[in-house]
Amino acid sequence: MRYTFLLYTDPADLADMTPDDWAAEKQVYGAYIGSLKEAGVFVDTDWLQPVDTATTLTLKGGSRQVQDGPFAETKEMLGGYFVISVPDLDAALAWAEKCPAAKTGKVEIRASAMG
Amino acid sequence: MPRSQDWQGGNPCIGDGLNLSDVTRAAELAARASYGKLLAILAAHSRDIALAEDALGDAFAKALALWPERGIPDNPDAWLLQVAKNGMSDRQRQLNRFPVVEAFPDMADETVPDKDFPDQRLALLMVCAHPAIAADLHTPLMLQTVLGIEAKVIARLFMVSPAALAKRLVRAKRKIRDAGIPFEIPDGNELPARSAPIFEAVYAIHTLDWLEPGDGMGDEALYLADLLIRLLTDQPEALGLAALIAFGHARRNARIANKCLVPVEKQNTDLWDKDMLAYANRQLHRAHRLDQPGRFQLEAAIQAVHMARQESGRVDWASLDKLYYALLKIAPSLGGLVAHSVVISHVHGVDAGLAALAKVESLPDRPFQPYWAARADFLARAGRADDAKAAYEKAISLTTEPPVIRFLQMRQAMI
After folding, report:
1. B16-30, B123-137, B195-209: range with highest mean pLDDT
2. N or C: which end of chain A has fewer CB within 10 A?
3. CB proximity B1 to A under 8 Å
């Protein structure tokens, strides 16, 4: 079964980063991705640009509305995601616990509705 | 960083009987011992760890620039302390802050021998593991302040965002300063309770090392545990912790074979580090003589029984049974219950093992990987092939360490 981890972190944590800082950040996530791949459960991941670059669009209400910014302002923002393939929620929780974002932010775990 | 291998002054705090013939490692330990000691003195007098770190970092940088030309001073630590102290006073004047640096030991006289330095590292460890500091920061703070390890490196070891960890460490140090957390060693009555989080934090470093012996964390855990038995004399649990970590570290080369976990009772004993094993047994004997059993001593005793196989050629399961019984009375834990059930399965058979595991089933906790791994093993030994395969499947799905996944897959395939 496919599960998506939505990673919510405080954007202030990643403010004023030097290229070296980013390299260190990527190394930590790279190790996690390595474990997922070695275990054969990795499907996909991405790291998103900061939330202040978000653009939100809706056609709801009949007209095309484009908004500069996220659809909701929260302290912890969606910063990336993982998709993994594991048998059940217990296994998904075991992997979410190891996700770097869980230690400093929050990881929302959602099962795929497509099975 | 002060962990530069170019610097070879100071007084290495090398463990009792630990063989550290490697010159580079010895130099690093010497620099580290000085760093931790000096930082502890500077921080204890200013209560400002960040300020002390900056000043000491600058002092080490000056030493690297000046000493090759002028020669190493007779007392390098005194020189570094004086330079750092001056740097802190300057910085505080710049910040227009009331100087709180006072009552420094007089280090102007460079003839003061190293041994006269007051070792404030225990007070610094008490601050790092103070109840007012978030528990998950205790270990990173210790690694950074006492061992001088960079936040980035610590973050990689803990698999946590380096940027987020660095910010949390800065905030923690600010809190230590602004909230006035005292750099003090609690008196006798309070000492055991206040030492417990320090032991936990050191133990956490050791557990990180468990499956990745290459990252050097076993050395760091051992260094701190060895330091603790010097700073906290006659504390049986400190000795137990040092023994426990050393027993584990002695098996670092035997634990993984072909990228696959090897359980302790199947390890090739030729790969065990005999000097480390002897060190561990020595600390455990010292602890026993103090006659106050505790969790770490019992866990170390369990390891000692496993490792006595090197001499006897067999696992003394009956002794392990007694030790787990005692451990679970003092420090009940899910992991302990599962490990005990494995021992019971070897002493009284797999049905008894399964019965012991049933106690874990009734506990309201998340699915517990060791429970499923143990259950799968018992079912396989009982000849219940289908049930065993399903249990292994569940155990594998709950495992996130590749060497353990491979081990479980191998056992599953053997059914």
Report:
1. B123-137
2. C
3. no
Q: A107 - beta bridge partners?
A: A7
pLDDT greater than 60 at residue B110: no
Segment A15-44, tens digit of pLDDT? 888 999 899 999 999 999 999 999 999 999
Torsion angle defined by CA atoms of residues B99, B101, B103 and B109, in that order, rounded to the nearest 10 degrees: -120
* Domain spanning B193-255+262-362, CATH architecture: Alpha Horseshoe (1.25)
Q: Does the CB of B136 have a partner CB in chain A at under 8 Å?
A: yes
DSSP string across B41-58: HHHHHHS-HHHHHHHHHH
Identify which of B162, B168, B402 has the shortest CB distance to residue A28: B162
Indicate which of A3, A10, A13 best probes the interface with B, i.e. most B CBs within 10 Å of its own CB. Answer: A13
Q: What are phi and psi of A82, to 5 degrees?
A: -125, 145
Query: What CATH number has the domain bearing residue A89?
Result: 3.30.70.1060
B230-264 per-position pLDDT tens digit: 998 889 999 999 999 999 999 999 999 999 999 99
Name which of A114, A98, A87, A71 is nearest A5 in CA terms.
A98
Longest dimension (CA), chain B: 77
Euclidean distance between CA atoms B186 and B6, whole angstroms: 37
End-to-end CA distance of chain B: 53
B35: burial class by Cβ within 10 Å (0-12, 13-18, 19+)? buried
Domain carrying residue A36: 2-111
Helices (H), A1-115: 19-38, 89-98, 100-104
Cα dist from B221 to A6, A15, B130, B138, whole Å = 34, 32, 19, 13
Evaluate if residue B30 carries a pLDDT over 80.
Answer: no
- Residue of chain B minimizing CA distance to A15: B163
- Chain A residue with Cα closest to B400: A95
Q: State the total domains in chain A.
A: 1
B181 vs B175: CA distance, rounded Å:
8
Nearest by Cα to B91 from B59, B132, B128: B59
Report how far residue B162's alpha carbon sits from residue B160's, in angstroms, rounded to the nearest whole number: 6
Paired tokens of B323: 């030790």
Verify whether the Cβ–Cβ distance A103 to B162 is below 8 Å. no
The interface residues of chain B toward chain A in range 360-389, judged by CB-CB distance below 8 A, are 366-367, 369
Q: What does pTM read for this prediction?
A: 0.85
Question: Tokens 């002794």 map to which residue?
Answer: B319
**Cα B126 → chain centroid:** 15
Helix pair B151-158, B162-178: axis angle to 10 deg: 120
Judged by CB atoms closer than 8 Å, whether chains meet at A38 and B158 is answered as no
